[in-house]
Amino acid sequence: MSSNNVSLSKAELVAAIGVTAGATAAGILLFQYLSKGSGVKPKVNLDLQKDDPKVVHAFDIEDLGDKAVYCRCWRSKKFPYCDGAHAKHNEETGDNVGPLIMKRKEA
């Protein structure tokens, strides 16, 4: 049985570490550069009014009643109103989005 004894001088060890660190940094930079333009940016709105250039909803304050709850996760089946779909979205994605709640001040 033979043993491979490798002894490196201090200068050789420093050079080996430098080459390894440089190669690792170059690999990371190359990966970041190549993956930058390789995909479509994620969209928030997956299926609501996709033919419109911008989704806009306007409401008169007088028509809101005492309380209105609006969706901010874009997953509600009652959009623009919240149906609680953000709970599933948050669980699946680790996000923390919740509804916009508008209510009148209690007198």
From TrEMBL:
<keyword id="KW-0408">Iron</keyword>
<keyword id="KW-0479">Metal-binding</keyword>
<feature type="domain" description="Iron-binding zinc finger CDGSH type">
    <location>
        <begin position="54"/>
        <end position="92"/>
    </location>
</feature>
<protein>
    <recommendedName>
        <fullName>Iron-binding zinc finger CDGSH type domain-containing protein</fullName>
    </recommendedName>
</protein>
<dbReference type="Pfam" id="PF09360">
    <property type="entry name" value="zf-CDGSH"/>
</dbReference>
<keyword id="KW-0072">Autophagy</keyword>
<dbReference type="GO" id="GO:0006914">
    <property type="term" value="P:autophagy"/>
</dbReference>
<keyword id="KW-0411">Iron-sulfur</keyword>
<keyword id="KW-1133">Transmembrane helix</keyword>
<dbReference type="InterPro" id="IPR042216">
    <property type="entry name" value="MitoNEET_CISD"/>
</dbReference>
<dbReference type="InterPro" id="IPR045131">
    <property type="entry name" value="CISD1/2"/>
</dbReference>
<feature type="transmembrane region" description="Helical">
    <location>
        <begin position="13"/>
        <end position="34"/>
    </location>
</feature>
<dbReference type="GO" id="GO:0010506">
    <property type="term" value="P:regulation of autophagy"/>
</dbReference>
<dbReference type="GO" id="GO:0005789">
    <property type="term" value="C:endoplasmic reticulum membrane"/>
</dbReference>
<keyword id="KW-0472">Membrane</keyword>
<keyword id="KW-0812">Transmembrane</keyword>
<dbReference type="GO" id="GO:0051537">
    <property type="term" value="F:2 iron, 2 sulfur cluster binding"/>
</dbReference>
<keyword id="KW-1000">Mitochondrion outer membrane</keyword>
<keyword id="KW-0256">Endoplasmic reticulum</keyword>
<dbReference type="GO" id="GO:0005741">
    <property type="term" value="C:mitochondrial outer membrane"/>
</dbReference>
<keyword id="KW-0001">2Fe-2S</keyword>
<comment type="subunit">
    <text>Homodimer.</text>
</comment>
<keyword id="KW-0496">Mitochondrion</keyword>
<dbReference type="InterPro" id="IPR018967">
    <property type="entry name" value="FeS-contain_CDGSH-typ"/>
</dbReference>
<comment type="similarity">
    <text>Belongs to the CISD protein family. CISD2 subfamily.</text>
</comment>
<comment type="function">
    <text>Regulator of autophagy that contributes to antagonize becn1-mediated cellular autophagy at the endoplasmic reticulum. Participates in the interaction of bcl2 with becn1 and is required for bcl2-mediated depression of endoplasmic reticulum Ca(2+) stores during autophagy.</text>
</comment>
<dbReference type="GO" id="GO:0046872">
    <property type="term" value="F:metal ion binding"/>
</dbReference>
